[in-house]
Amino acid sequence: MLRINNMTTGYGMADVLHGFDMELNKGEIIAVVGANGAGKSTLMRAISGLLPLKSGSIKFNGKDISKVSAHTRVDQGLVQVPEGRQVFGPLSVVENLTLGFFSKRKQGKTQLQKRLEYAYHLFPKLAERKGQKAGSLSGGEQQMLVIARALMSDPSLLLLDEPSLGLSPLITEQIFEVLVELNKNGLSILLVEQNAFETLSISDRGYLIENGNMVLNGDSKQLLNNPKVTEVYLGNE
Ligand code: ATP
């Protein structure tokens, strides 16, 4: 579904990712783990189209999307939940969700209603707070809202950048449970995290990045037992 081939990208003269390869098959949850500054967010920006490639390619459903704009990628079903809970604070929960439906607005009100109901089913907290200003939600609720907003356009591949950042273990667990449910319903997921153990526990396969290089990849269960992964985890404690 997603294939990254020999990709180099970065900022200005500085390359962050060097000759990076990665693959995600339809229906998988893929984990990308690595320490602070390893290049995880850079990878996400390149996939979602916010950062141009210097070389290499990204293919989505067999088509080269390396030069396709970010909003066209969203239309094609590739949607990123940005790092750091970017909600529209003065707007209500339902207004935030409705904005996530913008690219699908031609589908009309009935479809909008269906997507809203699905969001509320996944995150009942959001249903309780649908009229509340997004800026007044707790950190965990804001994270739920940005995920739910991304789902409003009915993506086929969801990219998540550190959804657990700053959240309690309990809220993180709730959010990860929803990701597993979404995956069972057919959504493919690319999950970038410093939180290596939890992430590898819910994913099928994983990649470990160090200083912009992919140093390990494989079955998540095997990676969980790899000392290099433990090192990254302990380095973040
Ligand atoms: P974190 O979890 O801290 O966000 P990360 O693995 O996501 O870490 P990146 O944010 O991708 O890492 O950063 C990788 C490298 O790119 C770092 O050295 C960082 O300083 C650099 N970098 C990130 N964003 C920019 C930018 N806008 N301009 C220049 N350099 C950047």
TrEMBL record:
One of its GO terms (biological process) is L-amino acid transport. Pfam families: ABC_tran. Keywords: Amino-acid transport, ATP-binding, Nucleotide-binding, Transport. Residues 2-236 form the ABC transporter domain. It comes from Neobacillus novalis. This is ABC transporter ATP-binding protein. GO terms for molecular function: ATP binding; ATP hydrolysis activity; branched-chain amino acid transmembrane transporter activity. SUPFAM superfamilies: P-loop containing nucleoside triphosphate hydrolases (SSF52540). It comes from the Bacteria. InterPro entries: AAA+_ATPase (IPR003593), ABC_transporter-like_ATP-bd (IPR003439), ABC_transporter-like_CS (IPR017871), BCAA_Transport_ATP-bd_LivF (IPR052156), P-loop_NTPase (IPR027417). The keyword Transport applies. Belongs to the ABC transporter superfamily. The keyword Transmembrane helix does not apply.
